[in-house]
What does this fold into?
Amino acid sequence: MIVPDDYNSVHDAIKNASEGQTMYVKSGVYNECLIINKKLKIIGENKENAVIQGEMQKS
It folds into this structure.
């Protein structure tokens, strides 16, 4: 699963991912609020250019 090739947003990719799946995020800045409620591996294309920005809330 590759963002943005397979899904336009990280949120949509997470929503459609299966438990334990690996997601690859290409370079870019993704301004999204995410809820991750399953085990996933999220790998950025590189640490300088694959950025997910959002607010963090604990539940």
